[in-house]
Design goal:
The protein has 308 residues and is of the alpha/beta class. The chain has 12 helices and 9 strands. Strands 1, 2, 3, 4, 5, 6, 7, 8 and 9 form a 9-stranded mixed beta sheet that branches.
Length: 308
């Protein structure tokens, strides 16, 4: 790390976010910590993102790629980054003005910390109403087990050392969801995290939030599979927190798939968990029901909806 004023590389992927990205970039430019570069990656947008972003061309690095997802866009930004630290900002989020300053101070005082995150507020795009402040409980230190069970690290709050990403790798481009959780787990397996116990960014809730979509492949169990592949010692057969993570996330997926009418996918998830010896009564019930004819499954579904 360089001495007094390290460079921060801010990575902003954008896909059809022309109506939001001005506020995102402006929130970077208004930071009290001023030694940074901004790298915007256009992930194959079909709206007027070019027109909006080119207004900042003397203040940013602008890269375009064919639509390949946020993970690849962020990885491209990381590859271009010159900073000692990497900060992530989604194009529809807004940083608080002293976000970087507070995080850099923590990093300087704690050279063993790999990543600093903080709280964030969800707000409604339509009304600007604050919907919630997350996470309720914020923790520092070695958080691998905590992130396995309940990851509430807002991506746009993260500042991470570039040297750590060089060591553990970047975002797994096979994942369309949970790619951030996957990266935090890879880092948390080796390093402690620091926190700012204050709101660092505002997360805009609108119709296009990818984390709210149900039409894309859920990456939750894939994420766990690939963490176990990297670190066999945390296999659910050996490591209780990983077993608990499979159970919690697998059950949630099975329930959502079943009540969404995706019976074959529900059955596949339940079968995977049972084969892994990670199951409970609910998973067994969903597995058995989804073996029945569709007409009977619908009757069970209606009955179970009443008791949900």
């Amino acid at each position: 790390m360089s001495c007094c004023t390290p460079l921060v590389s801010i990575i902003i992927p954008t896909y059809n976010s022309a109506s939001f990205i001005t506020e995102a970039i402006d929130s970077c430019l208004m930071q009290t910590y001023t030694k940074f570069e901004i790298i915007v990656i256009n992930d194959g947008s079909t709206d007027n993102t070019d027109e909006v972003v080119l207004k900042y061309i003397d203040k940013i690095t602008y890269i375009k790629q064919e639509n390949a997802g946020a993970a690849r866009a962020r990885n491209l930004g990381i590859a271009e980054a010159k900073g000692d630290y990497i900060a992530f900002l989604d194009a529809d989020d807004i940083w608080i003005t002293d976000k970087l300053q507070k995080q850099i101070e923590i990093m300087k005082r704690n050279p063993n910390i790999a990543l600093v995150y903080g709280k964030f507020e969800n707000f409604s795009e339509g009304t600007n109403e604050i919907l919630s402040i997350m996470p309720d409980s914020i923790q520092s230190g070695f958080l691998f087990d905590h992130i396995l069970i309940n990851n509430l690290i807002g991506l746009s709050s993260v500042l991470v050392r570039k040297s750590v990403l060089d060591e553990v790798g970047s975002f797994d481009e096979r994942l369309l969801t949970a790619e951030d959780t996957n990266l935090w787990l890879k880092i948390a397996y080796k390093y402690p995290f620091g926190v700012v116990s204050e709101i660092l960014f505002r997360r805009r809730i609108h119709g296009g939030n990818i984390s709210e979509r149900v039409d894309i492949k859920v990456g939750t169990l894939d994420n766990l599979d690939w963490i176990v592949e990297l670190y066999p010692e945390v296999s659910p057969k050996k490591y209780t927190p990983m077993k608990e993570a499979y159970l919690i996330k697998g059950e949630a997926m099975a329930v959502d798939m079943f009540h969404g009418g995706a019976y074959s996918k529900c059955n596949a998830v339940c079968k995977k968990l049972i084969t892994m010896n990670v199951s409970n009564a609910k998973i067994l019930i969903y597995f058995v029901i989804t073996l029945l004819p569709a007409s009977l499954i619908s009757k069970f579904r209606n009955a179970m909806r009443f008791f949900r």
